[in-house]
Design brief:
Low-confidence stretches: none
Strand content: under 5%
Structural class: mainly alpha
Number of strands: 0
Distance between the termini: 72 Å
Largest sheet: none
Number of helices: 2
Oligomer: single chain
Order of helices and strands: HH
Radius of gyration: 37 Å
Shape: elongated
Helix content: over 70%
């Protein structure tokens, strides 16, 4: 005889166990399917929101860059006009000379500000397109073996 004794289930125990697993199985499957569907919908909504925000930021940067380019083009045209007048010998009147000097300084300052703004916008766009370095150590040895 073996030391193991087999405990037999009574018909009532067998029936209750069968009903328990029969009822719990479809409920668990239904709960799992609903949870997966809700998680997928939440994930999709978060992805769409991120894409929208990234698109708005890029659109704003491109608008700022276009405005800076337009300002620089206007400043260059004004500077070209001034240079051509000076080369042709068209000297402004003495009274208007101080106003023109202030205007030139204002145009030069606006040009410097526009170029600086363009440089900042360019560096921001450049940084946003570069992937961030991995915090993990390299998988291969970097230094060559002698």
């Amino acid at each position: 005889m073996s030391a193991k004794t087999e405990i037999r289930l009574t018909p009532a125990q067998r029936l209750s166990r069968g009903l328990k697993y029969t009822a719990a199985g479809p409920v668990d499957v239904t709960r799992g399917a609903l949870a997966l569907g809700l998680e997928g919908a939440r994930s999709s909504a978060a992805w769409a929101g991120d894409r929208y925000r990234r698109g708005r930021i890029k659109a704003q940067l491109s608008e700022d860059l276009a405005a800076a380019q337009q300002t620089i083009a206007q400043e260059l045209a004004a500077a070209q006009e001034v240079v051509s007048q000076v080369l042709q010998g068209a000297a402004p009147a003495r009274v208007a000379k101080t106003k023109q000097r202030k205007r030139r300084l204002l145009i030069a300052a606006a040009g410097v500000v526009a170029v600086a703004g363009g440089a900042v916008a360019f560096s921001i766009v450049r940084r946003s397109t570069q992937p961030e370095p991995s915090p993990l150590p390299p998988s291969v040895e970097v230094s060559p073996k002698p």
